[in-house]
Amino acid sequence: MSNNRPGSALAQPLQRPSAGRIAAYVGLFLFGAVIGLAGALVQAAWFPGGLLLALAGAAGLFLGGAYATGGRGGAVAPVAGWIVTVILLTTSRPEGDFLFGAGLGSYLFLLGGMALAVICATLGAGRQPRGGPARLGK
Question: Which tens digit of pLDDT belongs to each residue from 8-20?
Fold first, then answer.
């Protein structure tokens, strides 16, 4: 039964990611935070166009991170940075200041960005096992 081929990717032991991959994830997290801040400012400035620009930038970063790293973790890292930043920006300060107003554009940015995060993390290129054809035993 054993033919010296590696088994399924799920049967392999977990390995620590390389230093380069960790640096890429940290960079994508920070870039997601920057995109979240920029999108929060742009979406309110030019309502229909700014909202679309902010969501397109977020989607491009999420999906681009997945393809750049070759795995779904590349989409999850900027999503985490984006969500942390946007959630922190929605809270009001003791002085009463806030960045997001209670309007349609703000809600579309928040909900649309979260929907794009799920879509891009799902559609992102998953890591595939190396080796021969997909059909085993042939």
Answer: 666 677 788 789 8
Q: Are 71 and 62 in contact (CB under 8 A)?
A: no
Burial-class residue 117 by CB neighbours within 10 Å (0-12, 13-18, 19+).
Answer: buried
Rounded CA separation 111/79 (Å) = 13
pTM of this prediction exceeds 0.70? yes
Extract the tokens encoding 25.
Answer: 């994830």
Residue appearing with tokens 């809600």: 107
Instruction: Kindly give the residue spans of alpha helices, DSSP state H, lying in the chain.
Output: 19-45, 47-69, 73-90, 104-123
Contact 66, 72 (CB under 8 A): yes
Could you give the CA distance from residue 79 to residue 35 in angstroms, rounded to a whole number? 10
